[in-house]
Structures are given as C-alpha cells and as structure tokens.
Design brief:
three-stranded antiparallel sheet, alpha+beta
C-alpha cells in the first residue's frame, strides 16, 4: 500500500510539474516522526532555476502548501480513512527547515505560558502548521492548544490545561 501510494504520488506530482512547464524528477520516501507517518515527495532542485524554486515554494511556503493540499486531497479521494496516505511535498529543504522552526516555536510558546500562566497566541501559521503545533505543544505536560478566529486570521492559542475551553475548535 505504501509503495503504491508513493508511486501514485510521484506520478501525480511529476505530471503537475510537467503541466507547469517544469522539468524535474520527484522521489518518494516514508518518514515517521513526532507528527506521524507521511510519504515525502521531494522535488529535485538541481534542474530548476532559483526563480522556479522560489515560485514553487511561494511566500511563506503558500504555493508548496497548496500543492501539498491538492496532493493529499486528490491522491486520497474516495479512500477509506484507514487507506489514506499523508503526503508532504518537499523542495530545497524548505519543509525540513520549517519543521525545525515550528518545533522551536512550540518550545518557546510552552516556556512562555508555563512561566507567565497566561495564554499565548501564535499568528501566521497555515492550517497544516497549526495541526503540527497542536501535536508539538501537546507533548508538554500541563499545556493545551486550540484554534481561535476564522481564516484567514485563524490563530493557535497555547494555554495551561485548566484554561482550555471545553470544546476545542
């Protein structure tokens, strides 16, 4: 199943790049970390210009996020929950670097809340990044997270467990 999903992911992303007039190869490998298991589809950066790489990543990773959303939606369409595969799109080390930044942000937020006892709002995170942050902060005892607001101004809130609202949104 994982091999079939990886092959489907590589084929889908290669086709998308070709349709954009870009020539690059895509490789796949399974990654299991704190966030769970994901099939990482890595776009080879060597055949791409700096401008092409920047355009594919987009401002704050927005284009890469969109491609990743499309991959996850399209490649899991019609599949049962237990048959679905999470896909992460990587280019030029952007995802790996951002993952480390998110972990550092989660540790900082946890430290602030534990020291002050007051909730801390984090802005500027994509929905995928908020999901990761829920997980990273959740690893700290005594802390909870929830989201507040509506897109495009949805924020992650870190608070002490006893301050968390009853129904997380």
């Amino acid at each position: 199943m994982a091999t079939d999903a990886a092959t489907a992911g590589v084929n889908w992303l290669t086709t998308l790049l070709t349709m954009q007039g870009l020539t690059s190869t895509v490789s796949a490998h399974q990654v299991e970390d704190e966030s769970g298991q994901s099939c990482w589809l890595t776009i080879a950066e060597a055949p791409l210009s700096t401008e092409q790489i920047q355009a594919l990543i987009g401002d704050g990773g927005a284009v890469l996020d969109s491609i990743q959303y499309l991959a996850n939606t399209t490649l899991n369409l019609g599949k049962e929950q237990d048959e679905q595969q999470a896909f992460t799109i990587e280019l030029a080390g952007y995802r790996a670097k951002r993952l480390e930044e998110l972990k550092a942000m989660a540790a900082d937020a946890a430290e602030r809340v534990l020291a002050s006892g007051e909730e801390y709002e984090m802005q500027g995170l994509s929905s995928a990044e908020r999901r990761q942050m829920h997980h990273f902060v959740g690893a700290h005892a005594g802390l909870a997270t929830f989201s507040r607001g509506r897109e495009p101004d949805r924020r992650l809130v870190v608070c002490k467990t006893d301050q968390a609202p009853e129904a997380e949104s």
